[in-house]
């Protein structure tokens, strides 16, 4: 049986409560055995240093960052996430059973 896939898009800065929602949804889905894909875009790229995301990666979170948004906000590429473009976001939207946008 295939795992369910949850996709999340986060476009808000760390000061916004959406990061908490993304973390809680990811935690719940991962603990239920689902695959979780989180794409950070625009102001959301500033959430990359959040320690909770690093912890979720150890639990299986697949983390993607908009390369253009990261560059605009001075976020240096590293090996914590896949830095990519909107084609990957489009593929995630198409490939996930559920997709939630937190704007």
Domain unit count: 1
Number of helices: 4
Mean pLDDT: 97
Order of helices and strands: EHEHEHEHE
Architecture, according to CATH?
A: 3-Layer(aba) Sandwich
The poorly predicted ranges are none
Number of strands: 5
Largest sheet: spatial strand order: 4-3-2-1-5
Describe this structure in words.
The chain is an alpha/beta fold. It has a single domain, classed as DsrEFH-like (Hypothetical Protein Ychn, Chain: A, 3-Layer(aba) Sandwich). The chain is 37% helix and 24% strand. The protein has 4 helices and 5 strands, in the order E-H-E-H-E-H-E-H-E. Strands 4-3-2-1-5 form a 5-stranded parallel β-sheet, with helices on both faces. Strand 1, helix 1 and strand 2 form a beta-alpha-beta unit. It is globular and about 40 Å long. The N and C termini lie far apart (32 Å). 33% of the residues are buried.
Main features:
single chain; 103 residues; alpha/beta; Hypothetical Protein Ychn, Chain: A; five-stranded parallel beta sheet; 24% strand; globular
Concise overview:
37% of the residues lie in helices and 24% in strands. It has four helices and five strands; from the N terminus they run E-H-E-H-E-H-E-H-E. It is globular.
SSE diagram, text form:
Blueprint (H helix, E strand, L loop, with lengths): L4 E6 L7 H14 L3 E6 L10 H8 L3 E5 H6 L9 E3 L1 H10 L2 E5 L1
Parallel strand pairs: 1-2, 1-5, 2-3, 3-4
């Amino acid at each position: 049986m295939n795992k369910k896939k949850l996709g999340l898009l986060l476009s808000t800065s760390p000061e916004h409560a959406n990061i908490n929602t993304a973390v809680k949804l990811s935690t719940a889905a991962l603990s239920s055995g689902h695959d979780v894909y989180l794409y950070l875009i625009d102001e959301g790229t500033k959430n990359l240093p959040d320690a909770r995301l690093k912890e979720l990666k150890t639990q299986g979170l697949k983390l993607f960052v908009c390369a253009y948004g990261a560059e605009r906000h001075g976020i240096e590429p590293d090996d914590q996430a896949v830095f990519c473009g909107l084609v990957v976001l489009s593929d995630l939207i198409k490939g996930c059973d559920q997709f939630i946008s937190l704007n």
